[in-house]
Amino acid sequence: MNYTIHQIAKITNAQVIGEEKLLIKNIAFDSRIIYSTKNTAFIAINTQKNSGEKFIEAAIDRGIEVVISEHHYPQYENITWIIVKNTVVFLQKLAKYHFENAHIKSIGITGSNGKTILKEWLYQCLWNEFTTVKSPKSFNSQIGLPLSLLQINPSHELGIFEVGISEPDEMEKLENIFHPQIGLLTHIGTAHLANFASEEQLIDEKIKLFKNSEVIIYNGDNVMVGSKIKQLYSTKKLITYGFYESNDVHFKNDTLNDINIVVRYFNEKIIFPVHQRDEATLTNVLALLAVLKELGISNDRIVEKINALKAVEMRLESIEGIKSNIIINDSFNLDLDSLKTALQFLKEYNKPKKSLVLTDILGVNSNAEQLYEEVSELVNEQGFDSVFLIGNEISNYSKLFKSKIFTYNNTQELIDGKHITEIENQIILLKGARKFEIEKVKDILELRKHDTVLEINLNAILHNINYHKSLLKPTTKMMAMVKANAYGLGSYEISEFLQHHHIDYLGVAFVDEGVELRKKGITVPIVVMNPEQHSYETVIAYNLEPEIYSFRVLELFYEAVQKSGYDKKYPIHIKLETGMHRLGFKDSELDELGSTLAQKNLKVQSIFSHLSSSDLPSEKEFTLLQLEVFERNSSRLIKNLGYTPIRHILNSSGITNYTDHQYNMVRIGIGMLGESQNSEINKQLRSVVSFKTVISQISLVGDGESVGYSRRFKTDHPTKIATIPVGYADGIPRLIGNQVGNVGIHKKFAPIVGNICMDMMMINVDHIPDVKEGDTVTVFNAKPTLREFAEYCKTITYEVLTSISPRVKRIYVKD
Question: What is the pLDDT of residues 761-802, one digit of tens each?
Fold first, then answer.
């Protein structure tokens, strides 16, 4: 994209207030992750759930000078405004014009699963055949697709774009913007099916993308898909792929268990090895091959490209480092798009100093100078303290970078140089092509070396929060509970992520938890649910907001406020007793409470209570009774106060089961971790936590021999036993030993045998083929799930998570 503001206004019928000659190359839509302000406009996107206009000030504070908005705010001086009727329609109109005037070959990928993998594989195969642009990450929606299309520049010859929908009538709008020459339909599954009347309606909607396509490539194993496409697009070139021999592109079935497999492409035979043989991978390989053939790639080159394919790692890892550093590990791939994504991720942390390790970007060839100029501009805007460049090519352009620069030929030189290990209290971003193996740098910088890790997917947390928000009114606030070290996940890391994504409140159990967050830079309001008597001075000193549940606590806290010299009304949160019989003011105390509060320099920020059984359908009558008591008593207190505080009573299961009682705020805890007692809700949530380790050793134990302490397990035949480095000191309860619990290896259950030791346990791997030392073992995530693991332990998921030892390394992932 490269337009003056005047041109943009002319294309979209927008009004300009300010300088029309300014050049715009990029449009940013999220004020939190603006990594470059040069030639960048901020678009304040308004949706049914949110208004981007409330983030205009934040964008301007970051240095933005051009704003695209539906309203003009003259109080912001020296800003150029592009005023439009509808920001989403504006973005789509501009993208449509840009795409239709680009004159490039185009591939449009839609379907339920596999879009992103196929896009990345196609890019790996085609970047050196055509100058290629692709969708960043999974930008495929009503907003994401236009932003992807606007990346096309005059040098591009091919565009590969994902197109995603989640509701009926969306695809027609997207096809109007983007009409690909080659249409690729991946697997049709259950993703988003909940919003459609049937699979047939979903298919009808997906294939609207191909209305103006010249070629349609689709999975012919799905009979309904084939029937629909042939009926609607009989005049187009249709290519089917799949496992059935009736497809134009299919495997010769008797080769699927051999080292090499044979693919039939119409009447041709193509032979190549495929190491991963699961159905999804094999299906994607067929789709990939079909597209490459359609683009005229020779069979020899196709085999060469498939052999060179790399796994698609769409993730960044955040790890606690030595010397109080945070390590952001993105050593999985490197191109300009992924560099921008990594720089956006950095914006989520508030450490003032940061350093960068960056390698050559492979396959640049003749465009090297232009590319590294763009890379250096992006890097220079971030204000890195130090930049470590690895590789001969990027080192040649070191003078373009303005930070303290170190150059190395390879990763080992960087490690041997020691400079990287002298960094303290910074964020260190590791960004490199796989060839350079900069994960070795991560190994020397990370604080904990334990092979057992707890992996926390931050994007899954955000997805789960947004799902719960979708059930609420746009004005309803949300408090995230981060007590007990955020249920064992890491209080600071989770809180910082939530703060970045504009959570309204955080909730902790004890003052120490709140103080730790304040010391590390968390500024959002923090409610302390159980403030202890001796901690009131600390509450005030760190601007924490206490729960007040009795007259004794109220009087003691007010004394502390008076002693502190605090000269404003201090915010407090009043807890009402509604039937849980734990803490809270009872209905007989409300009149006295109202008159007492009226005499004190305190402000009731919120009135709340807690549902005891909102997750149990059998207790619906009792829950409704609690809600009735809360409505009556909170209303009575509000009348006595003479003003209206925030009210909240719904927890995670309350949000999903009693949405009508959301009041002004809700509290989310286990729901943001992807857990719900409601099976239908559970399908909409994403798993957040994965507890993993590796196999230390495999031994063949003879018939009748014993395993572990006290000889509690004895073999009845020669048995293959694996030892893994995780035990009860890591949070694995001893009660799930002796074949009560299982772990997962290669997607199969392996029973735990013998007594669980402090640091180790043993598992039976007799029935698992190709198992070897160093293989990954899943303690819980997908197989077994967190809930299944909790059932082994005869407890609830909360206890499982909060029991995981601090010595287990936490890794924070964004996929």
Answer: 999 999 998 899 999 999 998 789 999 999 999 999 999 999
Alpha-carbon gap, residue 219 to 353, rounded angstroms: 50
Confirm whether 809 is a catalytic residue.
Answer: no
CB atoms within 10 A of CB 214: 12
The pLDDT tens digits for 200-258 are 999 999 999 999 999 999 999 999 999 999 999 999 999 999 999 999 999 887 665 66
Residues 778, 749 contacting (CB under 8 angstroms): no
Q: Is 762 left (phi over 0), alpha (psi -120 to 50) or beta?
A: beta
- Residue identified by tokens 């002796």 is 738
Question: Distance (Å, rounded) from C-alpha 435 to C-alpha 308?
Answer: 13
Q: Name 158's bridge partners.
A: 105, 132
Alpha-helical (H) ranges within 511-619 are 511-519, 536-541, 551-564, 590-598
Please count the residues of the chain: 815
* Distance, CA of 584 to CA of 710 (rounded, Å): 49
- Active-site option among 93, 96, 293, 483: 483
Q: Rounded to whole angstroms, what are the CA distances from 365 to 103, 309, 360, 371, 394?
A: 24, 20, 11, 10, 12
Q: Which of 276, 279, 339, 344 is nearest to 309 (CA)?
A: 276
Helix (H) or strand (E) holding 26: strand 26-28
85 is catalytic: no
465: left (phi over 0), alpha (psi -120 to 50) or beta: alpha
The answer to whether residues 445 and 428 touch, using CB atoms and an 8 Å cutoff, is: yes
Cβ-Cβ contacts under 8 Å for 464 (sequence gap 6 or more) = 671, 672, 673, 674, 685, 686, 688
* Among 569, 709, 772, 794, the one annotated catalytic: 709
Specify whether the CB–CB gap between 419 and 445 falls below 8 A. no
Q: What does the H/E/C string look like for 50-92? A: CEHHHHHHHHHHCCCCEEEECCCCCCCCCCEEEECCCHHHHHH
Residues 135, 148: contact at Cβ < 8 Å? yes
Looking at residue 495, its amino acid is S
Rounded-to-integer distance, Cα 674 and Cα 323, Å: 33
**One-letter amino acid of 601:** N
Distances (CA, A) of 25 to 8, 40, 339, 470: 11, 6, 17, 33
